[in-house]
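Quick one: ABC transporter ATP-binding protein from Prevotella herbatica, structure tokens please.
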Amino acid sequence: MAQIPYLDVQNLTKSFGSQVLFDNISFSVSEGQKVGLVAKNGTGKSTLLSILTDKEGKDSGSIIYKNDIKIGYLEQSPKFNHDESVLEACFNHDNSEERIIKYKQILTQLKIKNFEQPMGQLSGGQQKRVALANVLITEPNFIIMDEPTNHLDLEMIEWLEGYLNRGNKTLLMVTHDRFFLDRVCNTILELDNEQIYIYRGNYSYYLEKRQERIDNTRSEIARANNLYRSELEWMRRMPQARGHKAKYREDAFDDLQAKAKQRIEDRQMRLKAGNVYIGSKIFECQYVSKAWNENEVILKDFYYNFARFEKMGIVGNNGTGKSTFIKMLLGEVKPDSGKFDIGETVRFGYFSQQGMKFDDQQKVIDVITDIAEDIDLGKGRHMTASQFLQYFMFTPEQQYNYVYKLSGGERRKLYLCEVLMTNPNFLVLDEPTNDLDIQTLQIFEEYLQDFPGCVIVVSHDRYFMDKAVDHLLVFKGNGVVKDFPGNYTQYREWEGLKAKEDDKAENKNKEQKSDYHNVTKRKMSFKENMEFKRLGEEIEQLENEQKLLEEELCSGTLSVDELTEKSKRLPIIKDELDEKGMRWLELSELS
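--- reply ---
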């Protein structure tokens, strides 16, 4: 017997004035399906979720939910009573003792610890996390979420992945986080050209099958164009001779014409900003310290010499000081001690979390031409403001829309274009991926890979970080910052190996200690005594070498090859120290 879907959508249509968002789309979500909805900014993803949750009306079509299912909905920008405490905002559902304990556990995982704090004192990101906790605690049968990973740090995102993958949860969500889509979703819905396309697999499967669909569509359009030319010639050649028997051919011609005029977005050109010069001196972070109070230490005597053409990612949990570090670099926040010495040729382009300031009555094209009429790509090449916008998928029609008509994601994309149009040689990007669609992110990744200047990226988007940066500063909290020579995936793999080695050493140590207690203690032989002394000297030498290596890796003066080579040496030293240390401990029991 066929399973009754949790949600069945049939022939759904929605438009705003002359703009059609989707036309007669149909899909369903069954129990246990984890569905990701992807589309370009401004094509109606959030609107579709609002319609499905009865927050907004539809033009036509039907939306049917299975009887008696409980739905949880996470809005992109949730609203709360500002006077309510965090717990009061959560207890609108159930204030039983069991629920209170579970609420506190989930809120703690999402780094919300002051349960009595008024909601009005929380940042937008903290409010989004409270809203997420609200959805999860009610244990709905069907969870609908709009950008659930926005404002979560990497640790929270990984926790949420695990939470959603446990049990037989049913999900429909909009997210730009491609790692999250890949690890959580088993079905992808793509909204494109007013239609819905269904891919029964994760994000990697979707990419493969989407390309097949685009290739097939291109072939169909090419065939239609060839046939269209011959049919057009027939239509023009015999206007008077056509009788009623040819009427079917005329009707078929109209369909053929529509297919031939379809357009598939094909961006074969990569935008390479060649006319960017930056000197050899970028910036030197000279023993900087910063703390908001004794419990919020950002940096302690931190030194770093930023190299030319460096592309750095900054990662760490929320509250460890990533954004503060950037603001100190840009001169917006003063260090407590030390300073940032910045090269004279450096021109920053800063894309911040709160940087969007537009005149809503301006047209999109005017926002960009107010900065420059064109951008110099070097070697005599120029790109006009309109071409630049089109490269970032603002169609000529959209360019003459007023800013107030743009969706949240389109406004973020316009802000990105605004920053890039200033032609900076050092891009500083604080959470640049929030609310940008996947296609824009792919374009931006290409731009950064070809960018001949310097880049610093603060982001929780693991996929984006892997594409855009070649090494990391890891903010651990309490002023501890580690330099890692690799991307985010490599860092997590290294962390995992390190944790396994630590566990292995600890277990070995416990076993050895247990064995020592079970045998009669004997005296150390002459040979063992000599080995004991030699081990002490070797351990001291290895510890000195380890300390020197760590200082060199944090100095910022090493080349990529040197960084790689010295990074390989560190775990070898650690293994030797573990091995020699264990033998030293064993012999010390006999002394």
